[in-house]
Specification:
Two copies of one chain form a homodimer. The first copy, chain A, is mainly alpha-helical. Chain A contains six helices and three strands; from the N terminus they run H-E-H-H-E-E-H-H-H. In chain A, a hairpin with a 2-residue loop joins strand 2 and strand 3. The first copy, chain A, binds a DNA duplex through helix 1 and helix 3.
DNA sequence: AATAACGCTTACGTAAACGTCAACTGCAAA
DNA sequence: TTTGCAGTTGACGTTTACGTAAGCGTTATT
């Protein structure tokens, strides 16, 4: 079965009625719930972000795995790379009492906010530059149209 | 000579006193003036963005080439990919009287502004989400510190 | 028995924009 | 003549986050 077909299957199913009551999840369960693909989950595992147990060949995800996946996806949304996320999760596993770990995370989050702010500024500058160009080009265009009229 | 060494050479030279009086430029001239590398200029040529003439083996850039390079770099700054830039430059070369060409460019610029606005929104959302997380984590941390005191 | 639904693995492909090497050539100054 | 600087041409490497292909196994249903 190709990934494409897999996705169609995922898309057309919804019934996650008991997602919170369950304590074990298949790879398909999680893909559906979080709107990702099987490939992605396997990829994350390959990168050491997830470690579901195996029932024979099959992956079985615990509630903890599921929570980790949630953290991974949030991390992505806010612009962390997978390797950064991995580091933080590893750190989280060490739990040296959590306080130190939380402090570390906190400072990374703050740094990332700075990054995002910088990116935002870059984009704003680009918008400004492009808008200026648009006005200039637009002006010339109008001029030309006036002449040819 | 490695790229690293090349860059050092570039960095330590400045004298572009006559950059505007000249009409011919070596690859090093342009790299210095625009703050890029030789490799980059060769790469752009490879991608069909630049077409300097040759004096034997050596590349010789005209003022027109130099202007094109300026456009390329502006295009990059505002978020166009090299292939998009290439298309627009090619279009520019056709000069069907320029008006049609300018209209095409104009609409692309406007689309790109939309893209940039969207990107900006995404970043703003990320900032919001991360800030919320920071507050939560920060709150818990304070709580813990209070307890241990 | 066949098909569907779910899962598995290996492994190559993709896009973007160059960086990094290697191995030369040409020219001028010391 | 030996450096040193400037330039040349391949061609492979890098990064990120998966997509896609291909082929195979397991259950449950039809």
């Amino acid at each position: 079965m190709t990934e494409h077909e897999e996705r169609r299957l995922i898309d057309r199913q919804a019934g996650m009625a008991d997602a919170n009551s369950k304590s074990q999840f298949t790879i398909g369960d999680l893909a559906r719930e979080f709107g990702t693909t099987l490939r992605t989950l396997r990829f994350y595992e390959d990168k050491g972000l997830l470690n579901p147990r195996r029932e024979g060949q099959q992956r079985l995800y615990s509630r903890r795995d599921r929570a980790r996946l949630g953290l991974i996806l949030r991390g992505k949304r806010v612009g962390f790379s997978l390797s950064e996320i991995r580091e933080m999760l590893d750190l989280y596993d060490l739990r040296d009492g959590q306080v130190t770990q939380m402090r570390v995370a906190l400072s990374r989050f703050e740094k990332q906010v700075d990054n995002l702010r910088r990116q935002k500024e870059d984009i704003e500058e680009a918008i400004t530059e492009l808008s200026r160009t648009i006005e200039i080009v637009g002006g010339i265009l109008k001029e030309k149209e006036r002449q040819s009229a």
